[in-house]
């Protein structure tokens, strides 16, 4: 996600699947599962799940703003699993650039196109927020 002070919204930025070496790869029982994360693969989420994922991001940002002023600013991630019944379980928060927001380096996120009519990677999105905030006199709202 990206919590934008300039636009007053939470943007869905990207998602990924953790790739775990001897769990996701075919080892044919040659190795015990260790669940060591060796990479991340970008994904396009099933469309029917997008509204729920967006709501989770918005609600998280809203609650953080109430409990920890000034609230969310910039990139963050809600580490989650999606169960077989399509319910989402969030198990961790990362208030920084992580794989789900960084797997699009150099090519840009397909979701950023929905907001800006072109793909942006997270570095570009942060730069856009800073430049736009500076031009509109809101830089003090996006840096702490």
Our count of helices gives 6
Strand content: 15-25%
The level-1 CATH class: Alpha Beta
- Compute the CA-based radius of gyration: 17 Å
Q: What is the CA–CA distance across the termini?
A: 19 Å
Overall mean confidence score, pLDDT:
90
**Number of distinct beta strands:** 7
* CATH fold node name: D-amino Acid Aminotransferase, Chain A, domain 1
The H/E string reads: EEEHEHEEEHHHH
Q: What does the overall shape look like?
A: globular
- Low-pLDDT runs of 5+ residues are none
Q: Summarize the biggest pleated sheet.
A: 3 strands, antiparallel
Specify the CATH homologous superfamily. ATP-grasp fold, B domain
Second rung of CATH, namely the architecture = 2-Layer Sandwich
Estimate the helix proportion, in percent: 25-40%
Our count of domains comes out at 1
Quickly give the structural class: alpha+beta
Q: What's the arrangement of strands in the largest beta sheet?
A: 2-1-5
């Amino acid at each position: 996600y990206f919590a934008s002070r300039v636009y007053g919204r939470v943007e869905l930025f990207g998602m990924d699947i953790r790739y775990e070496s001897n769990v996701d790869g075919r080892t044919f029982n040659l190795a015990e599962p260790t669940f060591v994360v060796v990479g991340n693969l970008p994904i396009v989420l099933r469309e029917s799940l997008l509204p729920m994922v967006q709501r989770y991001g918005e609600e998280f940002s809203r609650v953080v703003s109430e409990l920890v002023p000034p609230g969310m600013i910039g990139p963050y991630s809600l580490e989650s699993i999606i169960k077989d019944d399509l319910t989402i379980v969030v198990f961790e928060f990362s208030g920084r650039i992580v794989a789900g927001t960084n797997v699009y380096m150099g090519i840009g996120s397909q979701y950023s196109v929905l907001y800006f009519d072109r793909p942006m990677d997270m570095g570009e999105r942060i730069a856009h927020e800073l430049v736009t905030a500076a031009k509109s006199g809101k830089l003090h709202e996006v840096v702490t």
